[in-house]
Specification:
The protein is mostly helical. The protein is built from 20 helices and no strands. Helix 3 runs antiparallel to helix 4. The longest helix is centred in the first third of the chain and has 25 residues.
């Protein structure tokens, strides 16, 4: 019996080794493509050149395992490869997209369709987003990518972008397409500009007139203020002088204070503002590497929790940790273990309770397969009801 078990282990190890070796053969550039790179634009150019020579799918495979400089924006790099894939395969290229790099590939496909067909592309985009690989969140997140492209398509004009985004909402998804589309445009306003950098800079001067603009201004419809605040975080960090590559945690308190300026009568929006920090903290402690297989240490997860404490109040801290655990779980597309370990690192009982409630809600919303019962069982019994109500 012992010998038989040992042989089985050896066979499994050999299979794993062969898989690893074959994977590396498929992506020989992974070890070198990031060597001696001097800027993001240079790295982007290298991946786009590889995509042109070997195909967009191949370039994505390289990107999954490539050795890259710390704090490389993998989402934007994924967009760059996706742009080439769209030129090669059109809207049908979305069938080759996965949820890797936070759905950057499907985002690029729908943006390409918009640039080619204008508003007439909306039916094509709807069909393409329905085919986006991934779990239940892949379809609506596809519209987040559309928002990036709509904003650029209209020369970074926000009212026109909001008008077109409003046309995408459907009753089946409670207009979530519209909300995600506007969210993508705000993310583009915060850190995009690749389409026309000068017009993008002019748009920032026009729309970022106060710490909480445009989210809390009359320009933003009530239905989209929440998603706007979710993506506003980089702007608040910028105003606080935070260096994303090497953040000083003491500066997070200054940035959090901008959220505190939202009045008590709009408490839900204030919580969203705090939560956006957690969404950014989670990838930040891993040098913004959002690829599958990134191993989060307990120390990194404790760092996320400690940074959220800089909110200075329990409600803000809870919202921050809640969005961090949502980012870790990523609609059930990622290894769920870091999300559970993140909640385990929380010491305050109120914040810990909120963390597990948020995680239970994520499971309830996105996991409807054989994994569900096992994931629900990992939630403490006092918060498990949210998760187990329909399992």
């Amino acid at each position: 019996m012992y010998l038989r078990g040992s042989i089985a282990i050896i066979v499994l190890a050999l299979v794993a080794l062969l898989f690893f070796l074959s994977h590396r053969v498929l992506t020989p550039e992974a070890a070198t493509i990031g060597n001696n790179v001097s800027s993001f634009d240079e790295l982007k150019s290298r991946f786009q050149d590889l995509a042109r020579r070997r195909g967009g799918e191949y370039a994505f495979e390289v990107l999954k395992t490539a050795q890259l400089p710390p704090n490389t924006d993998l989402h934007l790099l994924g967009h760059a490869v996706g742009d080439i894939l769209y030129k090669q395969k059109g809207v049908e290229g979305i069938a080759d997209c996965t949820q890797d790099f936070r759905n950057a590939c499907s985002h690029a496909i729908v943006v390409g369709a918009l640039n080619d067909f204008g508003e007439g592309a909306l039916p094509k985009i709807h069909d393409a987003c329905k085919k986006a690989p991934g779990g239940e969140g892949a379809y609506t997140m596809c519209y987040h990518g559309l928002g990036h492209g709509v904003f650029a398509y209209f020369g970074y004009d926000l009212p026109q972008t909001i008008r077109l985004c409003a046309k995408t909402g459907t009753a089946d998804y409670h207009d979530r397409e519209y909300v995600e589309c506007v969210g993508g445009s705000i993310m583009e306003l915060m850190g995009g500009g690749g389409h026309d950098h000068d017009k993008w800079l002019a748009a920032r001067d026009k729309y970022l007139t106060s710490p909480l603009s445009p989210c809390m201004s009359p320009l933003m419809p009530d239905a989209t203020k929440d998603i706007c605040l979710t993506y506003l975080t980089p702007r608040l960090w910028e105003l606080a002088g935070i260096n994303i590559g090497n953040p000083d945690p003491s500066q997070f308190k200054t940035a959090f204070n901008y959220c505190a300026a939202i009045p008590e009568s709009q408490k839900d929006l204030r919580q969203t503002c705090y939560g956006g920090f957690g969404k950014e903290f989670y990838p930040l402690v891993a040098a913004r590497d959002t690829r599958d297989g990134v191993l989060y240490s307990d120390e990194q997860l404790r760092t996320v929790v400690s940074w959220c404490k800089e909110a200075g109040n329990i409600d803000g801290e809870s919202a921050c940790v809640g969005d961090a655990v949502s980012s870790a779980f990523w609609g059930g597309e990622k290894d769920p273990d870091p999300a559970f370990r993140l909640c385990g690192e929380v010491t305050d009982s109120t914040v810990k309770k909120h963390c597990y409630e948020r995680l239970a809600g994520e499971i309830d919303s996105f996991v409807h397969d054989a994994r569900r019962a096992g994931l629900c069982a990992r939630i403490p019994s006092t918060q498990r009801g949210i998760c187990a109500r329909s399992s």
